């Protein structure tokens, strides 16, 4: 899934160039490319499908030249994750009715890719012989209020794979007291928005729980993988309701499993999460770009487009520049960035 | 005089593009152009001479296309103000032995140009009939320790022009206690480095007080205003001692006059002086460029090369960007900028 717009980390992420297409961590690879890299050895290039906005087609093709152009599916408009996943699922089903699928955001960061691959492989094996929905649940390291949580039943693991637990409930973003309780209780995991299933499981789940969406793609089916695919998708896709896969399926489905995971995950949704998940210097600064600091602590400075940056006397700030747009803002005020940037 | 490098306001002023060539105040004109504008109606374009480094010849020509290319005198190296003024003086004398001259830095700012012109005209008239050295002394508004002072004798005004006073002494940059006393005593003025004299006065003064320099230009005289001028200047100029006109002449000359002045002068030498001498918003911010501020006070933000700048939660800082170089620094620490920038 590569259609999102991460406006909370403006100006590094903008509508023209959202964060999945940006080298956020300063390693020379964009988050989309890092996501692709993560599946190396697990999924052949030609089996990778990217769903994105039609505006980003060329960017995706440029950043992932190894995947067939026909594997880049183009949404004519944004309709949240359920229609996005439905489109890919029906399209893949037409080509390979027995496909096993990992659904993954393209704008998240995973530190331990070996562990990620191990868990993804284990779940893929699981769904290849089971019509189950499996999610990855990240072991929480702090009472984060910005993520949804998955409540698991630690006593109910799958007989087929003891690492995979039954899900009791999906929980929306909690307040701090609730998040703190979740952390104490130990059976709540962060919902990373990563799903593993076989194609029939998700198609059937959408047929049961999201009829409005499934009917649209049933009607599209004759045109998928034909010359008229884009034309027909452009007509029908905007008629989908805008709804997340969590609301459309996860919160309704009867039996869902979760694989608790610990691979250094971050959604990179905020400057704070970026600060927490990238290496810092001794003063707690995350410096991405050519930066010299003096008397500066606990800052994230992301200015890789600039030639020389001097920062003196800042504590707890974000400094970010991209394409002539500069942000200086207290880390504690970062929830206001969307307003500052005018939604761009 | 347009050969200086204002490295204290890096990155807006750099060796490649010193501040006289930059639109520091964000009005659409560089300090050099504003200096030229200041003499409109007083000095015809063809009587304006610019002494600069040979590296800046094209910049000067581009910014002041109205002055003849031959009026741009090129120093092969930096030798402070005395050799610079000597070169221009001998060159002008050869062309017009009766010239009256205003010597002015090109990187200062004057708010009230009408008053500046009135005073300059009055002084030019004075020196046209008197072999006197006249300086402009700025009425101090604060006990500034960054400027030199001129001590005047308030009881000794010139019979020919009662606004022009006799100078008792030139004083180097004082400490704060001394500067405070100067301000209280009322007969100390800031030395703005602006001099008015006729060409014979300065040439003779240099002959008397700076023989090392005058001899060099006496020898050059046959070549000035000829095809070989540049070649000969390039040979001889580096042999000049590096010395300011204040040390070479002002502090030695017997009779110097000063016209007290009040035309909103600033040397623009520091971010603080820029902050003090340009319009501020209600929160005391000087904003030059497309900047939106939130909870930001007493900052100077100079980012006219950027497309969009958001600053939240800063108080008493400099934020300046130019050509991919970004500075964020407390105003109170600005004396360290030279070190930060590596002298560039």
Strand content of chain A: 15-25%
Task: Provide a count of the helices of chain A.
Answer: 11
The main sheet of chain A orders its strands as: 5-8-6-7-9
Could you say which overall geometry of chain A the principal axes of the C-alpha atoms support?
Answer: globular
Largest interface: A-B, 30 and 30 residues
Pairing-aware structural class of the strands and helices of chain A? alpha/beta
Give the tally of β-strands of chain A: 16
Mean pLDDT across all residues of chain A, rounded?
94
Structural Rg of chain A: 20 Å
Can you write the helix and strand succession of chain A as a string?
HEHEHEEHEEEHEHHHHEEHEEEEEEH
Helix content of chain A: 25-40%
Low-confidence stretches of chain A: none
Largest sheet of chain A at a glance? 5 strands, mixed, barrel
> End-to-end span of chain A in angstroms?
20 Å
Oligomeric nature of the chains: homodimer
């Amino acid at each position: 899934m590569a259609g999102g717009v991460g406006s909370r980390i403006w100006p590094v992420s903008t509508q023209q160039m959202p964060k999945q297409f940006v080298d956020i961590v300063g390693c020379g690879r964009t988050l989309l490319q890092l996501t692709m890299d993560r599946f190396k050895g697990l999924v052949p290039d030609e089996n990778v499908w990217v769903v994105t906005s039609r505006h980003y087609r060329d960017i995706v093709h440029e950043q992932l030249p190894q995947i067939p152009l026909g594997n880049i599916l183009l949404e004519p408009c944004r309709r949240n994750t359920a229609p996005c996943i439905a489109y890919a699922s029906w399209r893949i089903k037409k080509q390979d009715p027995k496909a096993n699928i990992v659904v993954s955001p393209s704008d998240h960061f995973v530190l331990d890719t070996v562990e990620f691959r191990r868990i993804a492989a284990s779940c893929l094996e699981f769904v290849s012989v089971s019509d189950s929905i499996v999610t990855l649940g990240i072991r929480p390291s702090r009472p984060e209020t910005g993520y949804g949580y998955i409540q698991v039943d630690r006593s109910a693991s799958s007989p087929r794979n003891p690492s995979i637990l039954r899900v009791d409930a999906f929980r929306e973003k909690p307040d701090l007291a609730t998040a703190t309780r979740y952390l104490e209780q130990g059976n709540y995991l962060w919902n990373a928005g990563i799903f593993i299933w076989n194609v029939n499981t998700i198609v059937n789940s959408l047929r049961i729980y999201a009829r409005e969406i499934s009917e649209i793609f049933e009607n599209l089916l004759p045109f998928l993988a034909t010359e008229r695919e884009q034309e027909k998708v452009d007509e029908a896709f905007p008629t989908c309701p805008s709804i997340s896969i969590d609301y459309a399926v996860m919160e309704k489905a009867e039996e869902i499993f979760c694989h608790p995971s610990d691979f250094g995950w971050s959604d990179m949704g905020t400057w704070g999460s970026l600060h927490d998940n990238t290496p810092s210097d001794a003063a707690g600064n995350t410096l991405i770009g050519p930066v010299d600091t003096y008397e500066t602590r606990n800052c994230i400075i992301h200015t890789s487009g600039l030639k020389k940056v001097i920062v003196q006397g800042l504590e707890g700030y974000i400094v970010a520049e991209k394409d002539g747009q500069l942000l200086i803002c207290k880390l504690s005020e970062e929830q206001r960035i969307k307003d500052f940037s005018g939604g761009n």
